[in-house]
Structure to design on (450 residues):
């Protein structure tokens, strides 16, 4: 079907784009610049992949989130905590209703360009500490988008039954070079290797038995970097 | 409860603000500048009312909607049609998933400032030609926002059982001066009096037996303007 893909420039959404190019007619790619500490690191990768396939790509400025929303993921917030996602401290990195906002904008964009689906790279390891990653949110949001558009736009979650490790393995099959993706929430020059999303990134490669092409600030990718 | 109010500067949302000030602790007011032909007419009224009560007011710029979304309501679209809302031609004025986008942003904003409710001035006369005004959309969106926020933010629709005429009558009781509101989709110097929302505005005052303080381009308010 004609689909719009949400593309942050991270591992999961880049893989979702490569998969969608095989399964759908990708009529648009959307990236959101919402004032996070790592937007300036991940958006260039989103652009790189969209341009590689000659896709219509819109980077949507949502600077008001950086201005008015409370989250340590944002430039306006405090320090990004180290540690595993499951920890209570990670709640500070929640950007309130971010998935709802991104999916809503994608729904309107999809309806405007004749798409019937919106692809989001949600996966089985998405964290319950983030209310807008939970299944009940996703089901209700999917219903709202279906009911609220003439085309009954569908939210597509091709990776919802997969772990991040399985996504990485699938991405390698699809030709994704993960050196061309960004995860780290801190947004420094290199991946820090210690924040929640870096921990998860490293685990994904390790679990999948893949070489990790990432250059971490403290060393420890499993390539020669 | 602590509530955020969506305020366009039109009749319904201004009345909803005045009502919310009696029933809730209004901790924020949100207005959206999304590239419509009439934003520049209605937003000053939103500001006027928010300032009158010393409320925290954010005007959220959503210029990407004007750039990427397809609708004759937008500056980027074609002419706003004349006639009654029920007519097929009015579909051209639908801004895809606008209510979903506005409610999503309001949900994240509410969660960020400790509010438990978001007030939207949806009413019984909202039109089925707009998919994101339908009851099934509103119920699903309400569930998505409840599930997707820590505070289980509620979408409050105090006017959902009322007609626009009943809202106008209530507003007069609450002290709203409807000369300080804007409806016309065309966004000219005066209300045109003939587009869907002007037709509805005139009807509301007439049905409620109220003096219409609006100066229409072709004449015909029921005051001395």
């Amino acid at each position: 079907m004609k689909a719009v893909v949400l593309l942050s420039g991270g591992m999961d959404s880049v893989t979702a784009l490569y998969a969608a190019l095989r399964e759908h007619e990708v009529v648009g790619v959307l990236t959101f610049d919402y004032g996070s500490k790592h937007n300036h690191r991940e958006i260039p990768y989103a652009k790189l992949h969209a341009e590689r396939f000659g896709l219509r790509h819109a980077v949507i400025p949502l600077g008001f989130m950086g201005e008015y929303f409370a989250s340590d993921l944002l430039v306006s917030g405090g320090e990004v905590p180290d540690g595993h996602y499951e920890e209570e401290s990670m709640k500070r990195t929640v950007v309130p209703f971010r998935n709802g906002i991104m999916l809503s904008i994608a729904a309107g964009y999809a309806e405007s360009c004749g798409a019937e689906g919106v692809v989001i790279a949600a996966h089985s390891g998405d964290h319950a500490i983030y209310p807008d990653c939970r299944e009940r949110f996703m089901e209700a949001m999917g219903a709202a988008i279906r009911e609220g558009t003439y085309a009954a736009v569908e939210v597509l979650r091709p990776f919802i039954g997969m772990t991040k490790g399985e996504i990485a393995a699938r991405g390698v099959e699809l030709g994704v070079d993960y050196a061309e993706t960004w995860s780290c929430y801190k947004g420094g020059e290199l991946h820090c290797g210690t924040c929640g999303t870096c921990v998860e990134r490293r685990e994904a490669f390790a679990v999948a038995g893949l070489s990790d092409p990432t250059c971490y600030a403290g060393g420890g990718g499993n390539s020669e970097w």
